[in-house]
Amino acid sequence: MNSLLNWLSQIGSIAKFGLMSIPQRRGSVTATVIGIAGVVLVFVGVLSIAAGFRRAMANSGSADAAIVLRSGSDSEMVSGFGRNETRLIADAPGIARNKDGPLASAELFVIINLPKRSTGTDANVPLRGVEGAALQVRDNLKITSGRMFEWGKNEVIVGAGAAREFAGLEIGGMVKVGRESWPVVGVFAANGGVAESEIWTDAKVLQAAYNRGDSFQSVYARLNSAGAFQEFKDALTSNPQLSVKVLRQSEHYAEQSTAMTTLITTLGFLIAVLMAIGAVFGALNTMYSAVAARTREIATLRALGFGSGAVVLALMLESLLLALAGGAIGAALAYVAFNNFHAATMNWQSFSQVAFSFAVTPRLVMQGIIWATLIGFIGGLLPAIRAARLPIATALREL
Amino acid sequence: MKFFHLVWGNLTRHKLRTSLTLLSILVAFVLFGFLCAIKQALVGGVALAGADRLIVRHKVSIIQMLPETYQVRMERIPGVAAAAHQTWFGGIYQDPKNFFMQNPVVPEQFMAMFPEFILPPEQMKAWLATRTGAIVGRNTAERFHWKVGDKVPIMSPIWMRKTWEFDIVGIFDGAKKGTDTTSMFFRYDYFDEVRKAQNWGQGLVGWYTIRVKDPTQAADVARRVDEEFANSQAETKTEPEGAFAQGFANQVGNIAFIVAGILGAVFFTILLVTGSTMSQAVRERIGELGVLKAIGFTNGQVLSLVLAESCLLTVLGGVLGLALAWVLTARGDPTGGMLPMFFFPVHDVLIGLGISVALGLITGLLPAQQAMRLRVAEALRRM
Lengths: 399, 383
Fold this sequence. Notes:
The complex is a heterodimer of chains A (399) and B (383). With 399 residues, chain A is of the alpha+beta class. Chain A has 2 domains: 198 residues, no CATH class; 171 residues, no CATH class. Chain A is built from 12 helices and 16 strands. The longest helix of chain A has 45 residues. The mean pLDDT of chain A is 89. By secondary structure, chain B is an alpha+beta fold. In chain B, helix 2 runs antiparallel to helix 13. Classes of the chains: A alpha+beta (399), B alpha+beta (383). At the A-B interface, helix 2, strand 5, strand 6, helix 8 and strand 15 of A face helix 2, helix 9 and helix 10 of B.
């Protein structure tokens, strides 16, 4: 027990020596700390894009909400139903009902060109035609300003994300569809989900404007309970009059977001790994010069009876502290600069824009700090071993 | 050049420190190359766009179709040399993950419009003779190991929701590095014939490419095209191919800005690392520098000695890093199909070299000035 305490106090005093000498090595220490901060900043920053995109997609459906597409379709864009099919789907068992009938909304999904506010160039903005139950089949969807469009009228409401990202989408603005202009009468929020990137109007109005007859592309439905999904799915897939693909909305959005999140995550990790390798070299440099500058002190301490294990640990501790400081600075900067940073990108599956916010999640911050710790660990290990191995006599002779 | 061995000697005095600094510079330039390749993959189409080509699409959105009959009307507009159309087929080969573009085109029109696609003449002849024939780019042909003569089944969820079968009659190459050879093109007459049989979507095409006679008149021609179809069922939006590609890239995000941001952070860090190495090197050598000055080295010579050392360090790291980046990116797309035009362009390599020299000058400047301003007597006292 006593020897352990003694050992710890050895580590403590060597580490204290090291930390006190930092002001003399200001330049290289600053370079290392900022270098590691840079790694963590870029790492957390890039991955916060993927996290934000995934969050927007994940916030878009609870377990008792389903979507029905034509079988073989991987997005609403290429799906299609006639009126008789959507009616069969709405009457399937498992769908919740209220006084107006089943909670199912047959919808039409097209895109229109609107300029992005950030670049001024055209973007594919989703325009959705919905039916009466549309607000009930989605989670947390509510009008935040203005009012709902009137059924049968050429009016639209816009999602909060769309209003933010695309020009002309404020209440009182006009959306040009062909030769007609439709006024924006309301803005809605959907808890940050995908619907917030969309413009909504009455499905009948949109069918007419796009010469779509009485056709739809998808049916969104609210089920009696999360457990009713299987019953609903089985009923539809076994119906010989239908050829459909039935998914929970959450599954559908997860499927839609994989391509984008895989791309960003792959590239983000590659960049982070490269930067981390660079930072390891920087940290090694700093710690080697720290050891070189203190060769005599370390040798003296060891001549006085300090153990080499204590020397190694103390130097590692110093390196880890520097790395943690860098990691904390980087993560804090990333949080300030990127959390809730608004952006919009292309969702390849539906060929349309998704507005989302970068998300610096606690998990990302933890990952960033772990990276920093790893860099500090590797950067400290080799120099510390060298310091501990140096023959005492040789080192003292350098006096 | 006379002092090269002196500079080299100074650099190699602290082998460990020099190599660690060199390695961090190297990594920074590998990252530079990698990011340039990503940027190239996402916005490279802008630079490759033909200056004399315009894209005509439906005004409301590109998913809306235009009548095939617009072709003749476009070709009559003054300033238009030729027009060719394409249509989004959106087919799936085996699995949606195997994404590549397939478009029906009119072969002769199309190949004349896009000289960057190079197809051997006998394969062109075969294409004209085979109604179900398709040509495919080198990249995709290699990806799926397709050869001329193969039959390829492609399921289209948009068109007829059936599996179409095409005969590969040719494999085309790109005229330039960076030309996208991931697409497949097949015959429009075959496509429209099937549509006609089903009475669905016949006579409609996705978008047109126009070649203008005089690129300086492109804006006027674009305006005339849009006026021609104003107030019709399908109004158009015409813009230069480059602007179209830029707009498309902007839809993904402001990539140039993100890349510049990351590189800024990287090079700022490298600046600090190299700068601290150089100032350490000079501080250790104050005595020697004093000796150099005492034996007659001028201030300018001392300054350039230190600058040469820092530049040698950064350029060495830069060249090695860029070379490594070149080798690594030469293996192509790291994401498996999502970034077909992933490569490290030569002009970015040159920019990288420029940056490495600039890095050396900036990091060497302060220490070099210190060295230059040394007073001989003081410096010698520190020996």
